[in-house]
Automatic annotation (TrEMBL):
It comes from Shewanella psychromarinicola. The gene is ybgF. It is found in: Periplasm. Keywords: Cell cycle, Cell division, Periplasm, Signal. Residues 32-104 form the YbgF trimerisation domain. This is Cell division coordinator CpoB. The keyword Cell division applies. It comes from the Bacteria. GO terms for biological process: FtsZ-dependent cytokinesis; protein trimerization. Belongs to the CpoB family. One of its GO terms (cellular component) is outer membrane-bounded periplasmic space.
Amino acid sequence: MKQAILVAAMFFTTATVLAAPAPVEDVAGGSNDDRVSRLERIMKAKQQGDFEMQRRMDVLQNEVLDLRGITEQQNYQMNQMLQRQRQLYEDIANLTAQSSTPAAPVQADATSVAAASSTLGETGSYEAAVNLVLKERKYDEAIPAFRNFIAKYPESNYAANANYWLGQLLYNKNEFSDAKQAFSTVVSQFADSNKRGDSLVKLGMIAEEENDLAGAKALYNKVIKEYADSASARLAQQQLLALKG
């Protein structure tokens, strides 16, 4: 019995050995054609990887250039806004500044102002009125000069600015009713004027002086909505914060 089992085991072992698969061929083995094919596939995969990397680098470079262009554009816009803001503050400062050695006050004569401006043209009359403010600081004389200009040239390209200057002068004299009329003219009749946003802010400040806080807030919010990212909007935002404080 034991002998029969031993013979059967030897037979099974021999059959298993004969049926075992051949060993796997080494990767480096094979014919020359196989090795060449494998090398070609490796080179092709590397080339594709290099191409994809270069493509991504090109995309990143373009994105950097785009970002640089956006940054330069934003810097330019910021400089423009700062310049407009400085101009606005200079306008206000010129109107409110007092000379350290003021000259004796001169009473404005509307008739003489009108007579003087009648000899000038449209541009000359406007420049003369502005010079009374900026150069000569004759604020009282500037008021009839601007009023005369507005009456004579209501459709002038300078009419919006003339009304704005008139409103500023009257506001500084606490003549809020007349100042409101001048600023309202800019808002209602000169929608494309670059002084419209500033005039809305001034109307809000007049509303504050009249204790109409709800009206002032509405005007400031209007400026922020219609003239976002402008010097006028920033000034309106400051006024709103002061009201809340």
